[in-house]
Amino acid sequence: MRPITKSFRMNIQPSMPECWGHRGASATFPENTIASFEKAIEDGSEDVHITTDNVIVMFHDPTLERTTDGKGLIYEHAYYGEGGVEHVRTLKEPRQQIPTFKQVCDLLMRPDGKHVKLNLDIKPDNDPDRLFPLMREIIESYPDFETDLAPRLILGLWHPKFLRSALVNVPSMKRIHIGASPAAAREYFWNDCSGFSMYFACLVGAEGQAFVAEAQKAGKDIYVWTVNRKDEMIEATRWGVKAVLTDKTALFQDLRKNMTDDFATTRQEEVGIFFRWATWRYWTLPQFVIQTLWKANIEKRAGCSFNLKDDVAAALIQPSSAAASSDLEKGQAHEDAVVGGSHAAAAYPNEKLGGTLAASAPVAASA
Question: Are 72 and 10 in contact (CB under 8 A)?
C-alpha cells in the first residue's frame, strides 16, 4: 500500500544492499529446511541449536511445535535414533527434514553453492564452549576450508559471552553483533566485531542514525532485520546498509531492480513524508523501553550480564587455538547448550543489479 503523502524527491543513487532470506526462503518453502535454503540461493537470498548427541541443527525456534510434527525443546532431544530430530518433518508442504549444520555446509561446498554466505544466528541460550569446538570440527573436515568455506561463515552474536570462545575456536569466521540497542553494540562489541545486524526500528531515530554513520566511518558493516515493508527496505538502502534481512526475498529483489533503475522515483512513490512517525516503534520513548527490555531478556537467556570481566583480548595470544579448545571441550560442555536461529545468507554477484544477493537461515543443535 503506497503512502498518501509522498516524500520529497532525493536525487541520489545509493549502492544496492544484499538480500538475506530470513530462515531461508521461508515465505515459499517450509522454514529452516534444505529446500528453503536452496530456494533462498535461487532467489538471491538464504538461524543454530545443539542436540544431546552433539549435532548442530539449523532451526529458528528452541522448540519444535510451531513448524514441525515434533514436540519439546531441541536441546532435550538426540538427533539420531528412535524419537530423534532426524525423524521430525515440517508441517508445511512439501514436508522436509530439519537440516544439520553439516548438511548446510555440504550445500555451501557444492559448485552451485560457492557464492553462498551463511550467517549463523547464535542465540544467547547456547554454551559457547560446547558449540564452537563442534562447529570447528565440522568446518575443518572440508578440504581448503580456510579459503573455500570459513570466510563465508558469519557468526551473529547476541551476547558478549561468546566473543572469547569464538576468538579461540573459530578465529577465521567473521563476527557480527545481532542486537536492538546501538548503545550496547558500541559498548560491548565494537572492538571485536566487524559489523552489526540491528533491529531496523532502533536505527530510525537520531541515536540510530548517529550509530550508522559512526560504524560506516569506522569501516564496519550495518545489516538490518527483519524488513518486510517496501518503505523500510528503501530507507535501509538509502542509509547504505550492507544487507537487508527479509522473509520476502522475491519482493525485495523486484524492488532492488526498481531502485537500481531509478531510486529517487521509487522512494518518492513508496516512502511517505511522515515515515519517521509511521509507527510507534520508531519513537524515542518506546525505543528506550524496547531496548531496555531487549537487553534484560538477552541477559536472562544467557544467564549472565553484558558486563563480563573476561579479557577478550587474551584469546588472541593463546599459543594454539586447538590446544585451548581441547581444554574447553574436556571440562566445560554443558547439557543445555543451544545455538539459536541462523540467517543463512546466500550472496552472489549480480551484474545486472550491480550488487550481491544474500540469504540467511537458522541453525539448531539438539543438546
Answer: no
